[in-house]
Amino acid sequence: MRSVYVVAGGISKFAKARPDKTFPAIVKESYELLLEDLGIEPKQAFELIDGTVASYFSDHFLRQLKGATMVQDYLGLCPKPSHRVEGGGATGGLAFQEGWKSVASGNMDVCLVFGFETMSHVNTWKGNEFIALASDVSFDYPVGGFYTGYYAMMVVRHMQEFGTTPEQLAHVSVKNHANAFYNPYAQKREKLSVKDVRNSPMVAWPLTRRDVCVMSDGAACVLLASEAGLKRIEKACAKSFPKVKVSGIGRGTDAMRMADRPHKKVILLPHEKESDYKNLKYPGVHSFRAGRMASKQAYEMAKITDPLNEIDFIELHDAYTSSEIQTYEDMGLCKYGEGGQFAESGATFMPSVDYGLKLKQKTICPVNPSGGLIACGHPVGATGLMQGVFALWQLQGSIKKHFKDDKLQVKNAKRGIIHSHAGTGTYVSVSVLEKEM
Amino acid sequence: MEETKKTKKNKTETNGKSSMNGVKISQEKTAIPETDEGTILFNVPFPKELDERRLKDLENYGPIIIKQPYHIDYIHSYGQDSPFFAGLANKKLLGTECEECHSKFATPRLSCTECGSKCKWIEVPLKGKIHTFTVCYFGSEAFLKETPFVLALIEFSGFDTCFLTRIVGLDPDKPSLDWVGMDVKAKFVRNSKFSPTDVYFVPEER
């Protein structure tokens, strides 16, 4: 497989509603930012780009099938090759990896991956209903299936198994909202306390409004290239770009129905032993086998054996605060069961931000320096790519240029991960990005 | 309307912005509930003459947002899972067992999760324990009027997987981790809708 580099990225402003533009125009907004970063016009981009991959989750939000085709057309990229990827919340992360495959395989030298979602065309509860349809419509959805309810059931089991507390969940919300305060692209920027999070309206026990991400209208795109493609881009733009390579790819799946999750043995990472988890029935509904599988594959490919100390930052799919805690464990940043304590320790917080908390542990690996889904918003098809853009800017050292403030710049970032997650952990993608020196 | 339901049923609710002159203001109590009725409109502002400048100004014309209803009735078949629903209408809870590895599924599936082999129908006991639960104070639009309700996964002795259902008879305003592990028993509605909600669980009396 050939080396694949992430060269540039663009995002639109994420907002609760963007009635000012139709979805193709919102994607174009993100594309124009990418072109601005490269310093070229759309006509030149047409010459550079070999093809695209499109990412959006639900036709239901627009009642528009084959929407990606309309975007390809609006960006002026017809008749170049394209296809659309769908994978629930992991759509963006999966599309990123499909772009990687297109370039790594030799099929393309320069590939544009774009993603979008406009969720404001239905009211919030209808939106929740659509999302709930991403669960077994015969057995789960009719019982009053509702995604926050599913995740709440998982965290209750996590609390029962491991003693995780709602206050530990709230630490994740405080962290991500505070980080987003310094991110001009974030939908929500609020300085919160643990008490603010716990006192927010309860949605599904014990998750409150501030434990849950928000629906959004938004788009994001990334440009991937081979060695030859990168040379072509640098020639057209008359400048050079830092070499940010995709060094690891991993994916995992699990049963659609939470009720069907097995109670067997942990899939171990190299630094774990079977005796670490003697009595643990896995994954049950407390852990994501898919996340563990995806991490294992990506770490193998990127040659990571000590995740917590070998990764400089992670943009992690925190649709729910509880999901972030469960994912710390799946990714091997801490052992299964220790996620709650890890969440409040300080290890995943940014050293430069004041959270109003007394943290016991110094930063080891910031998680969601951008503010994550909880604060930036979750326009489903765009999210995984938004993470790619923020990760790229971290590794390029260009956070100050794009955020107008370097508070969220992870110093000397050399290796980062983007993690995308669908359903109740039914698809997970993990991609490792590394700056080649 | 959903907004008023929220104010009535949420005893723990407060807002993010706390106070003005020391008086606590609740966002929801000082706003008129939103509706999506819209109105009938026969015209919108538009320039009387179109010259180059007015055509350019059209680029800043604010968006027109209209209501577009859509309704579907599906002809949904339960296929090979049909016996489960027939069972519910006859006060029986059916699950399946893999003919190869003998994994037992409390939510029926005719193909085994573990080995992909064929499964056969078996009965599920009408008593189990709460494996996990939540209280849904909000939900999908279709279910908002039923909130708050208790959603739970039930575990059954001898079965490898759980069953998603609702618990009736527990106070939705007093959720507690103590509910995990509670003994519960199945009850069936008399008038079946051929939906998994034909069965629900209640705490077992001592």
Explained architecture:
The complex is a heterodimer of chains A (437) and B (206). Chain A is an alpha+beta fold and 437 residues long. Chain A has a domain at 5-122 and 217-237: Peroxisomal Thiolase, Chain A, domain 1, CATH 3.40.47.10. Chain A has helices at residues 23-38, 42-48, 67-74, 91-104, 124-132, 147-162, 166-180, 194-198, 227-237, 289-302, 307-310, 321-330, 339-345, 372-376, 380-396, 399-403; strands at residues 5-11, 51-55, 82-85, 110-118, 202-204, 207-208, 217-225, 244-253, 263-264, 282-283, 313-315, 415-422, 427-435. In chain A, the strands form three sheets. In chain A, strands 3-2-4-7-1-8-13-12-11 form a nine-stranded mixed β-sheet, sandwiched between helices. A two-stranded antiparallel ribbon of chain A has the order 5-6. In chain A, a hairpin with a 4-residue loop joins strand 12 (415-422) and strand 13 (427-435). The mean pLDDT of chain A is 96. Chain B has 206 residues and is an alpha+beta fold. Chain B has helices at 2-9, 52-57, 82-89, and strands at 19-20, 23-24, 94-98, 104-105, 119-123, 127-136, 149-155, 163-167, 183-188, 199-203. In chain B, the strands form three sheets. Chain B has a five-stranded antiparallel β-sheet with strand order 8-7-6-9-10, with no helix packed on it. Chain B has a three-stranded antiparallel β-sheet with strand order 4-3-5. The model of chain B is unreliable at 1-20 (pLDDT under 50). The interface between A and B is large, with 50 and 55 residues.
